[in-house]
């Protein structure tokens, strides 16, 4: 495969060592194009060649980063989704929950995300490779909620023997169901009320 030299940063101040450094702006362009193409065509119709063309780069630049569609989906879902929902310590269980729920709401309200999620749920049943590809994202998202629970235990907000699986489902599911499945709305008051209710349930 022909090497696309426009994708490599050159540093003439010192001799190169190891692998070439790939340009961040090319990765960002490919990321945007991938999600736009997925939302437009669905996963089954998604073509990496079209993604590269939409990003304005050669196919070699894409395949240097991701060898196949499922790998690209796994990496970008994890990278983008977890970055957006990285809220950190807020000082209390309810404030942690509120920050996380607002971050999740911001993601789920995005028009591209809505279309991709609808397609993702349908496509997983037909495409085992996609189901396997999103497992790292699902595990990483669960670890994010585990960290929230760990902080709550350290502060004494919840019992150390809390059922973590049920707690994680309780944190994420209500807002996801309302926005992604039912297509409902969620204003600020709803998120704040939901955070209070989830906090009370986790303490019970």
Automatic annotation (TrEMBL):
Residues 1-20 are annotated as: Disordered. Residues 24-84 form the HTH tetR-type domain. Residues 1-13 have a biased composition (Basic and acidic residues). It comes from the Bacteria. Residues 47-66 bind DNA. The keyword DNA-binding applies. Pfam families: TetR_C_11, TetR_N. InterPro entries: Homeodomain-like_sf (IPR009057), HTH-type_TetR-like_transc_reg (IPR050109), HTH_TetR (IPR001647), Tet_transcr_reg_TetR-rel_C_sf (IPR036271), TetR_C (IPR011075). GO terms for molecular function: DNA-binding transcription factor activity; transcription cis-regulatory region binding. Keywords: DNA-binding, Transcription, Transcription regulation. PANTHER family: HTH-TYPE TRANSCRIPTIONAL REGULATOR RUTR, TETR-FAMILY TRANSCRIPTIONAL REGULATOR. This is Bacterial regulatory protein, tetR family.
């Amino acid at each position: 495969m022909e090497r696309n030299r426009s994708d490599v940063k050159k540093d003439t101040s010192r001799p190169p060592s190891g692998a070439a450094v790939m340009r961040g702006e090319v990765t960002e362009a490919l990321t945007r194009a991938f999600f736009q193409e997925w939302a437009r065509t669905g996963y089954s119709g998604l073509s990496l060649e079209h993604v590269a063309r939409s990003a304005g780069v050669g196919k070699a630049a894409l395949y240097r980063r991701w060898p196949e569609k499922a790998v690209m989906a796994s990496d970008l879902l994890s990278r983008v989704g977890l970055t957006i929902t990285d809220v950190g310590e807020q000082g209390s269980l309810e404030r942690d929950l509120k920050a996380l729920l607002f971050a999740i709401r911001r993601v789920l309200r995005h028009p591209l995300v809505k279309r991709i999620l609808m397609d993702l749920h349908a496509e997983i049943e037909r495409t085992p490779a996609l189901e396997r590809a999103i497992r790292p994202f699902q595990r990483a998202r669960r670890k994010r909620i585990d960290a929230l629970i760990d902080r709550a235990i350290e502060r004494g907000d919840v019992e150390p023997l809390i059922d973590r699986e049920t707690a994680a489902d309780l944190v994420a599911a209500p807002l996801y169901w309302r926005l992604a499945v039912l297509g409902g709305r969620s204003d600020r008051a709803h998120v704040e009320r939901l955070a209070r209710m989830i906090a009370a349930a986790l303490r019970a």
